[in-house]
Each structure stands twice: as structure tokens, then as C-alpha cells.
Design brief:
By secondary structure, the protein is of the alpha/beta class. 61% of the residues lie in helices and 9% in strands. It has three domains: 316 residues, ABC transporter type 1, transmembrane domain (ABC transporter transmembrane region fold, Up-down Bundle), CATH 1.20.1560; 149 residues, Rossmann fold (3-Layer(aba) Sandwich); 70 residues, P-loop containing nucleotide triphosphate hydrolases (Rossmann fold, 3-Layer(aba) Sandwich), CATH 3.40.50. Strands 6-7-8-3-9-10 form a six-stranded mixed sheet, with helices on both faces. Strands 2-1-4-5 form a four-stranded antiparallel sheet, with helices on one face. The chain is elongated, with a radius of gyration of 35 Å.
Length: 589
């Protein structure tokens, strides 16, 4: 990673501090209070030793100093505890804000853009890479402030007592961050490469896990197992490279810190032997001055030690920020511009497309110019071979893809509508339904208000009532992760019930009968056929049987509508629809 890119990422990371300035400032303030308590503790300890050894004062005379020393111990522990708490709260708030930014950006780009990368890479981005920034904000940033303030406070304490000891510490201080920075730049670059490798490894592993049945059928288990082993070994080596550089950074710090402390100790030793006589102010060097300097000398370098211990947090954060910043500024056209126009609630919906060209988020065209009209209450089935553009059309209507040309809903351009308002007019049932809410009832209602009578009717119409009694708590049963406990057919019926309950103006169906057994498919399609009569409906399907009752069929090929009309007319004329029918019959035979 070049210096320009590294500096940009550091600026980006520091910009995120705005989400938790109060907690970060509080953490630094508590760290400074802990330092002042430590200096007072060292002063009292040196004074006690001077009084006991040189002045030979009694213990009773030193009771006040002992109590004050004990109070300093307690205060320092309290300040350190609350400093850790404040740092954790700061990191927590910033991580929450970063996840919100990523999720908002993902929602803005839409599923059509997201599916370009494996799900494992998004999980790594949202969980691991953002999580790795906790120590950077909780520990490293407050420590950077303290690494400047604490040495200054210690020098301000030592210089009035002995200028030679202060000068030794002041001379050694700049060498440590200089050499640590040289090592740290290599650690940040290695950590960035490590994050990229982890994202690829996560994505590859999840893809192989999902396709394990296909791999087994083609006898690829052993080969894929070896490939995962090679990737894991490569990732292990990259991780060890990062750790090696981190340990090297700590070794540099310890070397120079130990050297400086040793020089201070030698100076005072020769001074007490009478070999050196400088550094004091108009009097000989006292035991108090020597003890105070030797107690504070390790503490002078402790902030840099802590900063070195947390330096790997900066390297991890920089590596994670590289992927995050690239994602947040990824070049992609927004599927729907944030318009502010709305449609009248409760009205029927008419869709009119004129020279409509569907595009990818990066601007590549997915279709040829389309011109069509979807009238209120019309039921249209879209058929065609794979790759004909059917799903792209559906994604456009859902607001997930940008477009050129014109498509109007009740005379209002789709791009001028407020996205959330437009999607409230839509209901959708796909091939792979998801139940994101905790219970069955919540997955059907979502944000809608509950109407018991309408809910019962929907449960009957969708077929959910057939298996409701088999669930342990009925509608309050927890669906669990990945719809655990429900079959695919049952999950699809819940998705149908959700779409029916919404009472949308436009019902969009994407192969709703795919992957279902015969009974479930019949029940689901029967429910959807009844529901399709209540609003405008557009259904993508490869099942050509059962389309006789639909108002119109659109046949798509190579990104354009090549034939349209009712089933009775299309079967009577030679064309793409009859070719699809013959092809389907051959597959059945």
C-alpha cells in the first residue's frame, strides 16, 4: 500500500471519530487523571524513602503520607477502570455507526449489485473487519493522546528536581516512535493483505459449503478439500507475517526504553559515588531525586509501550478500512434516485414503459428497449429461456436496478418516486423465501397492523393453516435462523401469506413454485392465482401449464419482448411460445 493511500485511510478512520467524540475525550481525560495519580504516587513513595532512610523519621510521623499513598493506589485503579469503560463505549458507538453506514449503502445499491460478490465476503466486511476496529478506537486513539500528555507531565515533574535525568529522557523519547513507525508501515501493509485473503477465503469456503452436494456428485470432494487446505495454509503464513512484524515493533520499543532507563540509573549511581556532579540545582543530588526519577523513568516510556502494544490495532483498522472505504465509495449507479413524489394510497396501478432499457449498477445494459403497458388488475405471465431478461425486469420494478428511457406508475416516473413509498405498493414472492422476523406471526405481518379476520383469511388462502396445528406455539412459534423447523414448501406458503396480507397494488412473483413438491406447488399456485385477481400481477415462470387463465403472456428472448398475447392465441400461431412448449414437452418425455 503506497503512502498516499495509507494517509487517506488514516484520515477516513479519524473522520469516524465524530460518532463518539464525547466518549473518546472522556477516555483521554481519565487516562490523564490516572497519570496525575501515578505521579503523586511516585512523589509520595520517594518522599517516604527519603524520610525513612536519610531523615530517619518515625513511622507515626509518616502515617499521613502512607494514607495519601494508599489513596493514590485506589484513585489510579478507579481511573483506569473507567478509562477502559469509556474506550469500550467509544468503540462500540463507532462500530455501530459503521455497520449502519455499510447496511445503508447495501440497501442503496440493492440486491442486484450485492450478488456480484459471495455472501462470505459481506459477512467478513460487516462482522470481522468492522469488529477489528474496536481496539483502534477504544485503545489506540486515546493512547495516542496520552502518549503525548503523559511524558510531558512526567518531564514537568522531573526537570525541577534534576535537569540531567529529564534531559536523558527527552533525548531518548523521539527515537522510539521513529523506529516504531518504520516497522509499523510494514505491519499495516501485511495486515491489509491479510484482510483481503480472509475475505476471499470466507467467500470461497461458503460457496463450496453451499455447493457440497454438486461437488459430491462430480466426485470433487478431495480436490476441493486440498484447495481449502492450501488456502488455509497461505492465510496462516500471512497471519504469522503480521505477528512477526508486531513483535519486531515491540522489541524496538523495549530496546530503546531499557537503554534510556539504564542511562538514568547509571547517572544517579555515579552521582551518589561522587563521580558526577551535575544536574542538580545549587545542592547535591538527594535520594528523593534519584528515587523519583527512577520510579518515573519506566512510566515515561509506558505510554509508548502501550501504544506499541496497541499498534497492531492500527494495522488491523487500516487493513479493514481499505475494504470499507473502497466499498463505501464503490462506483455504482443508484437503482432509484431518491425522489420525493408519491402515489395516491388505495388506487389501482397502471405501469407504462416506453423505450425502457434496464441497466446494471455499473451502467451495462441488460435489455433492449422495452415498451409495454400493465393495466390495473391485469395478470401477466413472463416466460422465456434463462438469461432472457425476466429477472432483470422484476429487479427493475422492485427498485434494485437503474434504467434508461421511461417507466411510469400512474403517470409518475419511477425514478421520481420516493423508494420506500414505491416499495410499499409492491408485494413479492421469490424462489428462495426468507423469514427474517422472530416468529411466524411477525413474518406475516411485518410492519402492518394486525387484523384478526383478514389474517385468518390469508392463512386459509395460503395453506398455512394446514400445518399451523403442527407447530409448538402456532403463530407464535419461532422460525429460527434459515427458517429452521419449516420445510421449503411451508416456508413458501408463509411468504405467500405475507404477500397476500400486504394488499399491495402490484404483486411480483419470481418462480414461486420452484423447488416445491407437487402438493405444495399446487397449493401455492392455487393461492397465488386467487390473489392475482385482486391487483396487478406480474409472474415469471418456466411452468407453461396452467397459464390458460392468465390475461396475457409475455415471451422474452435476448432482453426483449418478442411475443405477447393470451394463451389461446399464442398456441394457435407459430412463434417463440410454441417453441418453448415443444421444448418443455421434450423435457417431460
Amino acid at each position: 500500500m503506497n503512502k498516499t493511500r495509507q494517509q487517506l485511510l488514516i484520515r477516513w478512520l479519524r473522520e469516524q471519530r465524530r460518532y463518539s467524540k464525547r466518549w473518546l475525550g472522556f477516555a483521554s481525560l481519565l487516562g490523564l487523571c490516572s497519570t496525575l495519580a501515578m505521579i503523586a504516587q511516585a512523589w509520595l513513595l520517594a518522599a517516604l524513602l527519603q524520610a525513612l532512610i536519610v531523615e530517619r523519621r518515625t513511622r507515626a510521623e509518616l502515617l499521613t503520607l502512607l494514607l495519601l499513598l494508599f489513596a493514590c493506589f485506589i484513585l489510579r485503579a478507579v481511573f483506569n477502570y473507567w478509562r477502559e469503560q469509556a474506550g469500550f463505549r467509544a468503540g462500540q458507538a463507532i462500530r455501530k455507526a459503521l455497520r449502519k453506514q455499510v447496511l445503508d449503502r447495501l440497501r442503496e445499491l440493492g440486491p442486484a449489485w450485492i450478488q456480484g460478490k459471495p455472501a462470505g465476503s459481506w459477512a467478513t466486511l460487516l462482522l470481522e473487519q468492522i469488529e477489528e476496529m474496536q481496539d483502534y478506537y477504544a485503545r489506540y486513539l486515546p493512547q495516542m493522546t496520552l502518549a503525548l500528555l503523559i511524558p510531558c507531565a512526567i518531564l514537568a515533574t522531573i526537570f525541577p528536581v534534576n535537569w540531567a535525568a529529564g534531559l536523558i529522557l527527552l533525548t531518548a523519547a523521539p527515537l522510539i516512535p521513529l523506529f516504531m513507525a518504520l516497522v509499523g508501515m510494514g505491519a499495516a501493509d501485511a495486515n491489509r493483505r491479510n484482510f483481503l485473503a480472509l475475505a476471499r477465503l470466507s467467500g470461497d469456503f461458503l460457496d463450496r459449503l453451499r455447493g457440497r452436494e454438486t461437488l459430491r456428485l462430480f466426485h470433487r470432494e478431495q480436490a476441493e478439500q486440498q484447495a481449502i487446505a492450501v488456502s488455509s495454509e497461505s492465510f496462516r503464513q500471512r497471519t504469522m507475517e503480521v505477528l512477526r512484524l508486531a513483535f519486531l515493533s515491540s522489541a524496538v520499543l523495549e530496546f530503546f526504553a531499557s537503554l534510556a532507563i539504564a542511562v538514568v540509573a547509571v547517572y544517579f549511581g555515579f552521582s551518589y559515588l561522587g563521580e558526577l556532579d551535575f544536574g542538580h540545582y545549587d545542592q547535591r543530588i538527594t535520594l528523593f531525586a534519584g528515587f523519583l526519577a527512577l520510579i518515573l523513568a519506566p512510566e515515561f516510556f509506558q505510554p509508548l509501550r502501550d501504544l506499541g502494544a496497541f499498534y497492531h490495532a492500527k494495522a488491523q483498522a487500516t487493513g479493514g478500512a481499505d475494504a470499507l472505504e473502497r466499498f463505501m465509495h464503490a462506483s455504482a449507479e443508484s437503482p432509484m434516485r431518491a425522489g420525493d413524489r408519491t402515489l395516491t394510497e388505495g388506487t389501482t396501478l397502471t405501469l407504462e414503459a416506453r423505450e425502457l432499457v434496464i441497466c446494471t449498477p455499473t451502467g451495462k445494459t441488460l435489455s433492449k428497449p422495452l415498451t409495454f403497458t400493465l393495466h390495473p388488475g391485469a395478470r401477466v405471465a413472463v416466460v422465456g429461456p434463462s438469461g432472457a431478461g425476466k429477472t432483470s425486469l422484476l429487479n427493475l420494478l422492485l427498485g434494485f436496478l437503474p434504467y434508461k428511457g421511461s417507466i411510469r406508475a400512474n403517470g409518475v416516473e419511477l425514478s421520481e418516486l420516493e423508494p420506500g413509498h414505491w416499495q410499499r405498493h409492491l408485494a413479492w414472492v421469490g424462489q428462495n423465501p426468507h423469514l427474517p422476523a422472530a416468529t411466524l406471526r411477525q413474518n406475516i405481518l411485518l410492519d402492518s397492523e394486525e387484523d384478526a379476520q383478514r389474517l385468518d383469511a390469508v392463512l386459509q388462502a395460503s395453506g398455512v393453516s394446514e400445518f399451523l396445528d403442527q407447530l409448538p406455539h402456532g403463530l407464535e412459534s419461532e422460525t429460527g435462523n434459515q427458517t429452521l423447523g419449516l420445510s421449503i414448501g411451508q416456508t413458501q406458503r408463509v411468504a405467500v401469506a405475507r404477500a397476500l396480507y400486504k394488499q399491495a397494488s402490484l404483486l411480483l412473483l419470481d418462480e414461486p413454485g420452484a423447488s416445491l413438491d407437487a402438493h405444495s406447488e399446487e397449493r401455492v399456485m392455487q393461492s397465488l392465482e386467487q390473489a392475482a385477481r385482486r391487483q396487478s400481477t406480474l409472474m415469471i415462470t418456466h411452468q407453461l401449464d396452467g397459464l390458460q387463465e392468465w390475461d396475457e403472456i409475455w415471451v422474452m428472448q435476448a432482453g426483449q419482448i418478442v411475443q405477447r398475447g393470451p394463451y389461446s392465441r399464442l398456441t394457435q400461431q407459430e412463434g417463440p411460445f410454441n417453441q418453448l412448449l415443444r421444448h418443455r414437452q421434450k423435457e417431460v418425455v
